[in-house]
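ESCALATION

Customer reports they have been waiting on this structure for their group meeting. Please prioritize. Original submission:
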Amino acid sequence: MEWSYGSDKEWRGRLFEVGKRIRDYQIPIYLVETDDVEILKEIFYRINKSGRAMRWDEVHDALYSSENVPRTSIAQLESFLAEHGWGKIEASRLTSILLAMRGKDVTRTMADHRKDDKDILQGAVSDAFIVLPKAINFLRFEAQIPHLRLLPRMFYLEIAARFFALHPVPKVRSLELLKRFVWRFILSSHGTVLDQPELSEQTLRRKAIRAINSDEEQSVQRLLELAPSRDEQFLFQGQKFDARSVASRTAILVLSTLGPRHLKTGEPLNVTELLEAEGRDAFLKVVGSGYQGMGRILHPKVSNAPRLLRQLSREEPPDSAILASHGIYERERNCLRNGDEGEFCFLRAEELESLAGDLAKRLAAFDHPDRDRPSLDYILSQVSD
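Update from on-call: job pushed to the front of the queue and completed.
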């Protein structure tokens, strides 16, 4: 390809000068002769703190991992977890999760932690290969969060990582109560709970990690003490949809519990596989571009989804399993038939809030008759003590 400035002497001169500077640039190299690996690690860490610093996951892999030793680098852990089909956890996120596993304050910087303990994450990655699949499986199967894209806040994974690091095979009762803890925050995160200064998200992360100790059932009870003690209505009415926001992720998570079906075939959709394959595109818009509310469904991309949904609203029977699986009932169908997409989004948000109320009873189990009691064995052990 001919360069348009090829005949311009000034531009040609600048170009040649840039090339010369790149070729002749001298890279400083220091040779440090020592048998003490720890000294070399400390030198590397201090040099990296100045200028344009590397990310901490890169620093970790340089300090602690080895090409000859498997399961020692954050990069290897990132790839391993992605294979589980629950979504890719970025390496930058994994650092705080590793700190949580170790019971450390996840709100402090790595530089602060290293002042107290230079080897704070030594061996943590190897442990994470065992612990994090357990934490992910809990959130996926017990807490019914089918994919990372539907996890409203990352600290749920931090807390689960710490819990399973100390209690790799917890009791069934502990899993049930831990699920309640997660969902009580999920369904209350848009109310007043996390707006209270004494329980900001940062404070909650610190307190929750500290609450988990070597006593499994005591740990769960201490976590529940941090959770909202009453059902606070989930609110989505009037909110814009943003796949990155807590509110929108929660809204789609709530819809996923309906077991969405394919609009054309009626077959149940595997939400985990759908999100893994299509990412944000799985949040399919079914109303015109002028509406920003809950005009979304969990579904593979289809041509002209709004028209397809309007057609189904006219042709499907009153008890349509397909439409009900997307939270679309008679009132919403009437809006689609009449072309009133604004009212459709309004009513859809109402249905969403009602569905969240049902989940509060089933998954968050507010006001359950058992009052979050631990197992009978634990109660008897406390009495005997």
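Sent to customer with the following note: The CA atoms of residues 291 and 342 lie 7 Å apart.
Escalation resolved.
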